[in-house]
Design goal:
- The chain contains 5 helices and 26 strands.
- It is α+β, with helices and mostly antiparallel strands and about 525 residues long.
- The strands form 6 sheets. Strands 12, 13, 14, 16, 17, 19 and 20 form a 7-stranded antiparallel sheet that branches.
Length: about 525
């Protein structure tokens, strides 16, 4: 009897102990203190330029895969304290967070399923963690990365870009786009009308700081080529246009696309941003019936307006008569600045191109910030107007577009583009280094040719196919008896064509800038 009583008592104690242990464990997991400053410092609204990112910015996560998660600031800001968690929509821990650099972060003692700062003294601009997605959760499951960040004597939590939601999913299978059935060539007028003024966009408008539109550049092209698109990453050409207003690299990227490009058109920018850029001519055919274009909003960190992959072919095998497109601002994802005059702050790694809105960036320094608006007032509009239609064989084959010695397109198939407005020199934009960005064009190298000039006892062969007035000798062969002549040769100029007074060599640009 006593033995049975003792056994019952032990069982009761064990059950009570297990229940208490489980309750304590659940209480520890459920409790997660993410407030910073010990409750004595104020919490501010918004994200203040801090953000949570997943490397490569996937549109969804895959069950069981590992991802790198970043907590970053916008230069020149930094942070010293932080707490980051990964939870589901009910606030429960989701997946597994782990640290990658013990010098910067550790598992949070006050939030067992979160990560926090290793010390509260050192300043940080970026901290990286690893997150492993749970297996077997099924579609519809989502993870929410939420962060608290301390900046000096104020802190921010969960708002704006301090929260990031990512759901499980699979690659979408898009239906193939319908092919254009038009058996003709259409010519269009392409015009840009600016509507970005102090009256329409008064918040921090840079009226006395060189407000301008950069050179606009565009192309008609096939579906196989994409100049830029929402959710994509900026090419080097788009980056240079977005940050410095130079279309040179972007035009070079276009011309390398061969038969995917029909027309390349461009127009001088507007300094200040008053007036229009109009009367650019372009052509489309059944293979190259898309149009894309971009111009920089200046000054800005990396902001653009433009159109992407606008289709001018209609379902009834014809061509759009006219079309208007509102110009909303886009962030190229290459600079982390949040205002017109933000200092240079490269975004590494690059982010996806996304639209600027009244809530993105979620910061009052954002000139388009307005909690009462859902969309930014358009900064301008693009109008495309059909001028003529010329019949062409339905089985016409369009070959690569070639360029002549001045970099102008020449016909190599049954059709050719109508050249648009030429780019002329704009006021130079000074970079952070104090050097100048040089807008210029350089054609492809042609066959070897030589012009012989005798100077002293040195025989030199100069070759140049760049349309510029002054250029360092790029290629030379010199038979000299006096070695100093080699140095002097680098100071000489080569005049190549009567068109050379339009721009400065991009080769010199690359040497000076890069």
């Amino acid at each position: 009897m006593e033995v049975n009583t003792m056994r019952s008592l032990i069982c009761v104690i064990l059950v009570f102990g297990l229940s208490l242990s489980r309750a304590v464990s659940v209480n520890v997991i459920d409790s997660c203190d993410r407030e910073l400053g010990g409750g004595s410092l104020p919490k501010r609204p918004g994200d203040n330029g801090y953000r949570v990112r997943v490397v490569h910015q996937p549109d969804y996560y895959t069950s069981g895969e590992e991802y790198q998660v970043l907590l970053q600031s916008t230069p020149p800001l930094s942070f010293k304290q932080f707490v980051l968690v990964a939870v589901d929509d009910d606030g429960e821990p989701f997946g597994e967070l782990s640290i990658l650099d013990s010098r910067q972060s550790r598992m949070s003692p006050g939030c067992p399923h979160g990560v926090t700062h290793a010390d509260s003294v050192s300043s940080k601009t970026s901290v990286t963690f690893q997150w492993e997605a749970p297996a077997g959760t099924g579609q519809g499951s989502c993870v929410n990365f939420k962060a608290s960040v301390m900046q000096r004597k104020v802190w921010f939590m969960d708002e704006g870009n301090l929260s990031l939601r990512l759901c499980e999913g699979e690659t979408d299978t898009e239906a193939p786009a319908e092919e254009c059935c038009a058996c003709s060539v259409a010519e269009y007028d392409f015009s840009f009308y600016g509507q970005w003024t102090q009256a329409t966009h008064p918040r921090d408008y840079p009226s006395g700081s060189g407000n301008h539109w950069s050179d606009i550049i565009g192309a008609t092209h096939s579906r196989e080529y994409t100049m830029w698109e929402e959710g994509g990453f900026a090419t080097e050409g788009v980056k240079r246009l977005a940050e410095w207003g130079s279309p040179v690299s972007l035009e070079r990227e276009m011309r390398l696309q061969g038969s995917s490009i029909r027309s390349v058109f461009k127009h001088r920018g507007l300094w200040p941003a008053v007036g229009n850029m109009s009367n650019m001519l372009m052509e489309v055919d059944r293979q190259r019936h898309m149009v894309s274009a971009l111009t920089m909003v200046g000054p800005s960190p990396d902001w653009l307006v433009g159109i992407s992959n606008a289709d001018l072919c209609t379902a009834d095998c014809g061509w759009v008569e006219s079309a208007e497109y509102d110009m909303l601002p886009w962030d190229a994802g290459t600079d982390s600045g949040i205002s017109y005059m933000s200092r240079n702050a490269p975004t590494r790694p690059r982010e996806k191109i996304r639209r600027l809105t009244p809530s993105f960036p979620d910061n009052e320094d954002n000139p388009f910030y307005d909690p009462e608006l859902e969309e930014v007032i358009p900064l301008g509009k693009i109008v495309v107007t059909r001028l003529s239609v010329t019949e062409a064989p339905c089985d016409a084959v369009y070959e690569d577009t070639e360029t002549d010695e001045h970099g102008e397109e020449q016909p190599s198939g049954p059709m050719m583009k109508k050249p648009g407005m030429e780019v002329t020199e704009m006021p130079p934009k000074v970079m952070a280094t104090g050097r100048y960005v040089v807008d210029c064009l350089m054609s492809e190298w042609s066959d070897w040719g030589e012009c012989t000039k005798t100077w002293g006892i040195c025989h030199t062969i100069f070759y140049c196919s760049v349309s510029i007035p002054i250029i360092l000798v790029l290629l030379f062969q010199c038979y000299c008896y006096i070695g100093i002549h080699i140095v002097l040769l680098l100071l000489f100029c080569c005049y190549c064509s009567p068109h050379s007074y339009q721009s400065v060599c991009s080769g010199l640009y690359n040497v000076l800038v890069e």
